Each structure stands twice: as structure tokens, then as C-alpha cells.
Amino acid sequence: MKRIILLVITILIFSCESKQENTTVAFNATFANSGAPSINIVGANFNEQLKLDNNGSVNDTLNIPSTGFYNIVLGRDRMPIYLEKGKSLTIKMDANTGQAPIFEGTLANENIFTREKSLRDAEMSPMELYADEESLYIEKMKSNKKAEDSILVASGIKNKSFLNILKNEEIYTTAFTHNMYPQYHAYITKNNSFKPTTSFKNLNNNIIISDTTAYRSSMAYQQMVDNKIQNDAYEAFLADESEDKDMTITYLNHINNIYPNGFAKEKMVTQYLQYGLSPNEKLDEVYNAYKAINPSKENLAEITSRYNTYKPLTKGNPSPAFNYENHKGGKIALADLNGKYTYIDVWATWCGPCIAEIPSLKKVEKEYHNKNIEFVSISIDRKGDYEKWKKMVIDKELVGIQLIADNDWKSSFVTEYAITGIPRFILIGPDGNIVSADAPRPSDPLLRKLLDKLI
């Protein structure tokens, strides 16, 4: 009797083991003559570096978190691939031949289709599509989908996992494109008053943006959700008529209403704070809100480091100084401007958004010309563009005090203000203390409201 019981237990154990899901992918690849020491396999919640041998080859087992689409990152190049648990993929490429990669293994057909689809997508011009009127845009989107469906049927692929995931990816990508259309159509056609129809707005009504599982497994879903939430938060920010409104606080409140603490919220907020964390009066509130989502030690350390950099740049602290060459000759130091408010524009001749602010800056300077304020533009052009800067100041009849920093991005004023993107606007008080290390742009009506309160 004991033998029978032991036999039954053994069979049960063996049955359980045999039914365990194989979570790995047998991955073999050769990138001949690439010169790269390694590749990275990147997914929505996955990033693994694989070293290449002297032949550019790797033979490994990938323990992927989910079946789906990933990217191979080789230097500056990215190649989409499809990986499925329990299956195998072999890739052969030679950088010297320029020929298409060869796919082998149980996932060969799926990756041939994925590769060819990525090439078709690359041939499409999003800007041409966004330039179309709404009805034509929708017609083209439907036509493109019909063509892709026909190609997929002709491929003969029967893999249900691949087909289901591909279907969802197309839904996410289409939703992302719809989200982008109103903004880009208005920009390309120079029709700032453009508003999509109600039927267009309803195209994404069935899209769920709170699916934490999809956010963990799909890069396309992440892209679509990130864009949707940021757009919605921005619209809420514009509709907010309070004077102390803050875009980052609006974003945090918006995302708190959609996602619980966890991977999705942490990833979105951490990414947003790469540019959304600012040295303004909301810095402590934003930082404390971030800590409240229980981020990982690594992410918290990164944001804390930036917080500590920005804290000395908040209102009331002494401003970092400068002493730079004046276009009219000699040098101008910040100390020379004590007794007046100083509105600083950090810019460069190669910066399109900077140039776009010039007309508004001229108007503001003219309006406050006889007030207790100086307008200073500090160029961070490289030494090689010195003459270009000199010429542009004259050609565009730039107003105010025109200075050029001594070491472009590495200039002390730039690094001490932790400037990583331009244009950047700074307002300093008559006492040399910071009023705003990230002041409103000249084109922003909030600038005039701020100046009117102070001057």
C-alpha cells in the first residue's frame, strides 16, 4: 500500500513539474563586423546586456518577464524583435554586407514579419499624415490597417500568442497616433485654433489607460499611456485659473487618480521628473509627493540628488554670479546690476525654441523698458560660433544686454543653475537673490503678471 501511495505521489510531482511554464527563450545571435562589445535586449520592464565574443556572437538564455515585443540595441541602432517564452530565436547579421538579418528557430516567421513591418512603418511619414485634414487622416489610417491585415494573413503565421499581442500593439500604436494628431496638425498647418471633432475625440474612448499588466509588458502601451496622461494633465493645467498653479503638481494629481503605487506610477513619475522637477516654490511639495509613491532606492537616490541640487536655487537664495563678455564691449557682471530686477534669457544661436521666443522677449522688454528691470541674454554658443552670435545679435536687432558665456554648457553660471535645456529664463531680485530660477517664458502671460506684482 505504501508503495502505491509513493508511486502516486511521484507521478503527481512529475506531472506538476512537466506542466511548469518554460519562462526562458533560447537566444543565439551573430552580429558580424559590428565592432560592438555587447548588445542590450530592452523591453517594457526588461533590460539585459549580452556580451559578444570576438566573432560578434552570443549564445544565451533569456529569462523574459513576458512574451511580447522587445528591442535589440546595438550601438545607436535598434531592431524590434518578438520573444516568446519556451521558444527559440537565432539571428545572423553581417554589418559589411548590408543585407537583411536572417532569422531562424521557432520564432523565425514571427520575426521576419516584425522586421518587415518595422521597415514599412519607417517608410511612412508621420508629418505628412498629421498634415492631412481629419477625414483624410482617418481614411489613411484605416487604409494602412487594412493593408497590414492583408500582409499578416498572407504571411501564414498561426501563432495565437503572436497574433493577439500584435493586435493589441496595433491598438496602442493607433491610439498614440490619434493622441498626437490634434497637436501636430495644428503645428504643421499653422492653425493654432484647430480643434478635432467630437467623433475624432471618441476614437480612443474604448482605450483603457489604467492597465498595470499591459504597462509592464508593452512598450507601445507605455508610450501611448505616457502621452495620454501628459496631454490630459496639460489640458487641466491650462484650464486651471489659479495663480499658483504648477504643471508638475497637476501631473502628479492626475496620475494619482489613475494609478495606485507600483511599477507603472513609479516609472511614469520618475521619467516625468527628469524635466518636471524644477527649482521653484513647489520643489518640496513635488519631492515629498514623489517619496510618497514608495520609489525604489535607486530611483529615490537619483531624484534626491537632483532635489539637493535644486534646493539652493529656490526663491530667496543668493543667485550664482556671472561676469561675461558684453556684445557692446567689455564685461558685465551680475553685481553690476544690483538695485534692479534682472530677467535672464539663457539661449544659443542654434536653438530653435530660443529663437522663437525673441519676438515676445522684445515686446516684454519694450513694455518694461523704463521700469526697474534689466533684460539680459546670455548665449552659451561654443567658441567656434562666436562670430555667428555677434552677427545674429545685429541681424535680429536683439534688445537688452547681450552677453556670451565663457565656456558654453560648462560655464559656471550654467552649471550652478543646473541648466540642462534651453531656453531657460531666470529672474533675480535687486538684492541679488533668486526670485525664480525657472521663470515664465516671454510668451507666457504669467511673466507679465509676475513682473507687475514686483515692479
UniProtKB/TrEMBL annotation:
<keyword id="KW-0676">Redox-active center</keyword>
<dbReference type="InterPro" id="IPR050553">
    <property type="entry name" value="Thioredoxin_ResA/DsbE_sf"/>
</dbReference>
<protein>
    <recommendedName>
        <fullName>Thioredoxin domain-containing protein</fullName>
    </recommendedName>
</protein>
<dbReference type="InterPro" id="IPR013740">
    <property type="entry name" value="Redoxin"/>
</dbReference>
<dbReference type="GO" id="GO:0016491">
    <property type="term" value="F:oxidoreductase activity"/>
</dbReference>
<dbReference type="InterPro" id="IPR013766">
    <property type="entry name" value="Thioredoxin_domain"/>
</dbReference>
<feature type="domain" description="Thioredoxin">
    <location>
        <begin position="313"/>
        <end position="455"/>
    </location>
</feature>
<keyword id="KW-0201">Cytochrome c-type biogenesis</keyword>
<dbReference type="GO" id="GO:0030313">
    <property type="term" value="C:cell envelope"/>
</dbReference>
<dbReference type="InterPro" id="IPR036249">
    <property type="entry name" value="Thioredoxin-like_sf"/>
</dbReference>
<dbReference type="GO" id="GO:0017004">
    <property type="term" value="P:cytochrome complex assembly"/>
</dbReference>
<dbReference type="Pfam" id="PF08534">
    <property type="entry name" value="Redoxin"/>
</dbReference>
<keyword id="KW-1015">Disulfide bond</keyword>
